[in-house]
Amino acid sequence: MLRLQQYEHLLKLLVGSMLVEGPPEHLDAIRDRQVGSVHKKNLGTLIGLFTNRHLTMESADPSIGPGKTAEGSELADEPWASINFTIAMPPERYAQTKAGLAELLELRNKLVHHFIEKYNLSEESECRAACDYLDDSYERIDGHFRNLSSLITVFEKYQAVISQLAQSDVFQNLFTQDFDLDDTICWTGSQIVDCLREAEKACTTDGWVLLNAAIGFISKKSPDQVPSGYGCRTWRQVLQRSGQFEIRRVAGSDGMVGQTWYRSRRTSL
Fold this sequence. Notes:
With about 270 residues, the protein is an alpha+beta fold.
């Protein structure tokens, strides 16, 4: 029974952690809540959750459709992350695994509910038979426990790899500074370009925007958006490197500093 409890403890940890989704900054808390929510579930429910959600045959397609969560609902506009681990097996092994888990559940129920009915412990021969049955049951349960322990080890290894990736600069740049995986900047639709276009709508004069006026507008509305975050020294470099704007330079007169104006590039039909 102690080995069964150890097995259930591992299975609760696994079931609560293999599918986690929500706002990226809350994933750890969401996982902890899920592990807590399965704490009181019995072995049958845990096995059902594990086999239905995370076991699949190699020929099956476990992918989640684009724009959907694991439950099939449309994703919200806010940042959303979904991490889902599945175990794909050949059809024969898949069937054997499900059958083995069903046998484990049946064994657990016999030990918990029918052990005394099966053996008359007031007789010595029955006690010997009961001990043999318990020894055999332990070996079977321990085999499942060792298999699950190995799976937990592999799962924790991949969790560590994903955690390391999520904390890397390349991964963070995908969400914060509009970089591609090869560390190049995705200028089209990037946050800083969006800010320049928003400033264009607010500060336009005869179809052009004075760059200094746009900088003042952006510094108030989106102070985190600065050229240095995109590998540029000046806002003029952002305009040039993005390739999204036309630039006009007006020279100063009588010692006055020149002015830079910009507008979004016109697309030809």
